Amino acid sequence: MNEAVLEKLKVLAESAKYDVSCSSSGTVRKNKAGSLGNTVGGMGICHSFSEDGRCISLLKIMLTNNCIYDCAYCINRRSNDIRRATLSVQELVELTISFYRRNYIEGLFLSSGVVSSPDYTMERMVRVIKELRLTHRFNGYIHMKSIPGASRELINEAGLYADRMSVNLEIATEENLKLLAPEKNHGSIFEPMRYIQQGMLQHLEDRKRMRTVPRFVPAGQSTQMIVGATSETDKDILRISSLLYKRPSMKRVYYSGFIPVNSYDKRLPALTQAPLVRENRLYQADWLMRFYQFRADEIVDDQYPDLDLQIDPKLSWALRHPEMFPVDINRADYAAILRVPGIGVKSAKLIVTSRRFGRLNASQLKKMGIVMKKAQYFITCNELPMFTVNEATPDYLRKILSQPVKQKKEDGQLAIIFPD
Amino acid sequence: MDSLPSFFRINHPLAMRVFFYDKTFEGLLSAVFDAYSRKTFPDRLLGEGSIVPLFTEESHRVDTVEEKTRRVWTALEKKISAQACNILTHAWLSEETGCDELIFRYICKNIDSTVSIEMNFGDADVLKLFQTAKRVGHEGHYLRMFVRFQKAADDIFFAPVSPRYNALPLTVDHFRDRFSDQKWIIYDVKRHYGYYYDLQRVEEITLDDDVHLLGGKLDETMMAADEKMFQELWKGYFKAMTIKERINPRLQRQHMPKRFWKYLTEKQ
């Protein structure tokens, strides 16, 4: 551990940071005598937040940022002129453990550029997590990327030590993937995904018969798609996500607004700024699918293939379906209440449990944390509203509920307004 | 005073009944016991020695007795769920003014009702107590996130903290489980107490001299030999993780409030 390691750490962190996945949830594992660490499950623990506001939960790092592939969207592509570094197994293990003991991190997120072949790379990555788990009895969270094209044997071995594994889809349609990453295809990505899922289901089945069967990727798998680098509509992206979520092992799909890491390639759009609003809207749509019982084709369809950037997808759906409203807070079922803009999962549950004790009125709803600014047009409660979405018309609501364009603050000086 | 006709109280809305107690949770439960055995319910709960408010119609001094405390708590455990009992203790740790009266009202409402009212969030007291408990629980989560250990020369991992609510006791189990093979101290600088784990058990400690900890940093002479280097490594890593194109300090502060920064290695 010295200056050289610090330099390598910086270089490899720079290379790994575009991977969005950060979660440390999904596994509950108590500490065992003589080992280090535990995992908490449920809500994971973020340990820090970098200046871009993204959480730092795991030590997200690459084993090496050398890569034989030349994917146009990736900072580590072969033709890119960046500093390259490789960490030794020993260095990486010591870093992880020392950071963990100081409560800096929740565990390790291990990724790697592909050197010589997918299997060669995968084998070295497996060696790191095996060393951590077996020699150092590290019991914290481990997320390991699976290299596209890696063999089934290596994935089966990695799954015994990792809590979560992931293969990044990166581009939602195969033709665009072919365009930007000629050496990759969807087959080489979906194959490891399938191996992970089969291993997981197999071990779950075996564990029912015998408790001593080890757990296999207990926190499931995740994947990531880049947004804004290619011509996909939100409909394409959300359709793929919803298909992925149908698989029992897929826990999260991440969306990564494309950051221009490649300024000379003509295949990529010339972006001045990453599409952050679109990324945010996609996450909102993702939440609707996972927690709000929405289907992908309800959020985006052929008529509206892209998400509305001005208003959130739930409000957008509600304005397209005024016939579903107003919803009676005191009588409607949970699923209907969940669809009201301004009411989240927690508030919907509060409403459903509380109304058994008496009818709820608007001021009680406000205190519970319901965003009445939006919700008032879509509900009736103890007092009858006069002005619901049907009276106000969706167009008018859209106008008043759109997020205001940010105005630049004047620097303390009051403006004097002269009428023209 | 009990013999006063009831219209007297109706005609004098300012007239108050006051209970004085020792400002402990046990004392609060004893106050509930006294209220029911005397059949008089206080409008205010005050600490011993505080000034008697104007228009006090009646005052009573609560003796904290273990028997009373236990009986009230057992009755509560029978009436409300374990989760609701947790909410009570969490809310108590908030140390907010008026929280004791809130808990008192919550207990009384539950005892008076035929069924538990813990799920009636339409009731202002139930909702307030729930929200207070949630804030305290979240402060505990903040501690699990933002505790930063510094390794001292004697191989003890040391972390000073100063949470907004007294949430440190909520996190002890977590840290004991996670760091079971290293000695550690987590010390609440604001409340002048902490927990020390000696590889066997956790005990509460108070340091005689904790003024030098207010800065949030261990003195370099007390650090282990490699501590400085790991701090530099972590700072370097933290800086490298930022994506320049996405800089958003407001979002950073929202997730990681500034009051924690002085204890964060990467922000020092």
What does this structure look like?
- The complex is a heterodimer of chains A (420) and B (268).
- Chain A has 420 residues and is of the alpha/beta class.
- Among the domains of chain A are: 3-165 and 184-222, no CATH class; 313-401, no CATH class.
- Helices cover 39% and strands 11% of the residues of chain A.
- Chain A has a 6-stranded parallel sheet.
- In chain A, helix 3 links the parallel strand 6 and strand 7.
- Chain B has 2 domains: 6-138, no CATH class; 147-267, no CATH class.
- Helices cover 43% and strands 15% of the residues of chain B.
- In chain B, the strands form 2 sheets. In chain B, strands 4-5-6-7-8 form a 5-stranded mixed sheet, with helices on one face. Chain B has a 3-stranded parallel sheet with strand order 2-1-3, with helices on one face.
- Residues 1-11 of chain B have low confidence and may be disordered.
- Chains A and B meet through helix 1, strand 3, strand 4, helix 2 and helix 12 of A and helix 6, strand 4, helix 7, helix 8 and helix 9 of B.
Question: How would the blueprint of this fold be written?
Answer:
The complex is a heterodimer of chains A (420) and B (268).
Chain A: H1 3-16, E1 28-29, E2 39-40, E3 48-49, E4 55-56, E5 58-62, H2 89-101, E6 107-111, H3 118-135, E7 141-145, H4 152-158, E8 164-166, H5 174-180, H6 186-209, E9 221-227, H7 234-246, E10 250-257, H8 276-291, H9 296-299, H10 313-320, E11 327-328, H11 334-338, H12 345-354, H13 362-368, H14 372-375, E12 379-380, H15 389-392, H16 394-401
Parallel strand pairs in A: 5-6, 6-7, 7-8, 8-9, 9-10, 11-12
Antiparallel strand pairs in A: 1-2, 3-4
Chain B: H1 6-11, E1 16-21, H2 25-38, E2 44-47, E3 56-61, H3 66-79, H4 82-93, H5 99-112, H6 124-146, E4 150-151, E5 156-161, H7 168-178, E6 183-188, E7 193-197, E8 202-205, H8 227-240, H9 249-255
Parallel strand pairs in B: 1-2, 1-3, 5-6
Antiparallel strand pairs in B: 4-5, 6-7, 7-8
